[in-house]
Input
Amino acid sequence: MGGIGAPSQHPELWAFLESLHRGHLLSGTVAAIERFGVFVTLDDGPDHPLFPGVGFVSFAELSWSRCASASDVVQVGQRVSCEFLQFDTSNLEARLSLRATQPDPFQAFADRIAVGQQLHGRVTKLIPFGVFVQVADGIEGLVHLRELTSTPVEAPSDAVQAGDEVTVVVTAIDRQRRRLSLSRRQGSPDHQ
Output
């Protein structure tokens, strides 16, 4: 895939995109919703030669919370204000973030909790090396397999199932990577 072309082919669009800086707020209208993200027609700047809009918001940058599809967050025709992330030179588009304009629920949650604190949650997903537990709205933490029970188990399903209510203890909070590490072993004595 060679991209759309050199600056000389679309000088106005190229100049507009080069003038943007990370963190700039850009307003526009949702032009199209695709499986991989959302195209935004920007209020300022030229039109795009191929795409429905010059702005593009990837699925990951739509919302802090996990959503099933882009249409859970935005609708075609909706006005949006997004933060500029980068100039995608191969597609001649402005990569945007909608979630960057909203408060991060993880950071607010991290302000309220501490390592060693006991939380109650619900098992949402089992993976080979542990389970994810939802401890607040939109906040999940990982209980590693070794932290699942006081006696070792080979698979998470030997100890819990999705939907189980569990008591866990916070073992680490990684604000930068937005990761919460939990232990069920330390949370309450196992009666197995």
